[in-house]
Input
Amino acid sequence: DGGITQSPKYLFRKEGQNVTLSCEQNLNHDAMYWYRQDPGQGLRLIYYSQIVNDFQKGDIAEGYSVSREKKESFPLTVTSAQKNPTAFYLCASSIDTSLYGYTFGSGTRLTVV
Amino acid sequence: EDQVTQSPEALRLQEGESSSLNCSYTVSGLRGLFWYRQDPGKGPEFLFTLYSAGEEKEKERLKATLTKKESFLHITAPKPEDSATYLCAVQAGGNNNDMRFGAGTRLTVKP
Output
C-alpha cells in the first residue's frame, strides 16, 4: 500500500542534541512538507519541498534543517538551536501544489528530557 | 494575514444528536478549503476539498458546505466512531504551498 512512513514514533532528546526525524513516501508525490503541532494550535509549517534538491522555509524554520536528496525522502533535523522542540511532528506529501489535499504520516512525538 | 478560526474548540454529542462545526477564514484569494479528521496520536486524514461558495460535499454522515467567509461540517446522526478532532485548512491564491490550518474542533460522541 502507498503511504508515508514516519519514524520513530517517539523520540527523546537531551539538551544540546541534534535529532533527525525520518519521512519516507512511496506515493510518487513531488511535494513534501513538515508541520509542527502543539496543543490548542493549528499545524504550523516548518519546511516544504516541491522538487528534489530544493526546499523552502515555512513560518517556523528557525532551529530546524531539512534535505531532499531523493524524491521519496524528506528528513527533518531538530537542532540544538530550537529552544522549545517538544511537539508532535507531522510529515505530509501532495501530488503538486495540490488542491487534492495532503497525505500525512502518523507523526513523531519529540520530547526533551 | 490569512487566518483560520474553528469553533467550538470542543463538542460533546450524544449518539444520534446532529450538529455542525464551524470554520471561519480570512484569505486573499481562496483556492481551496480542506477538511481533515485526526484521531489521537495519528496524522490527519483528508476528508473534503471545497473550491467555491455554494459547493457541498458529502461522505457518510458528514457534509461540508462553503460560503465566502466560512465552512460548516455537518454531522448527521453521529456514532461514537465519529469521535475525533476535525481540522479545517485553507490554501490561498498567492502561495501554492501555504496551507493554513485551524486549531481544530475536538468532537466526542457518547453512546
Summary: Chain A touches chain B at residues 4, 6, 31, 33, 35, 40-45, 48, 50, 56, 58, 90, 92, 97-107, 109 (CB under 8 Å). The first strand of chain A starts at residue 4 and ends at 7.
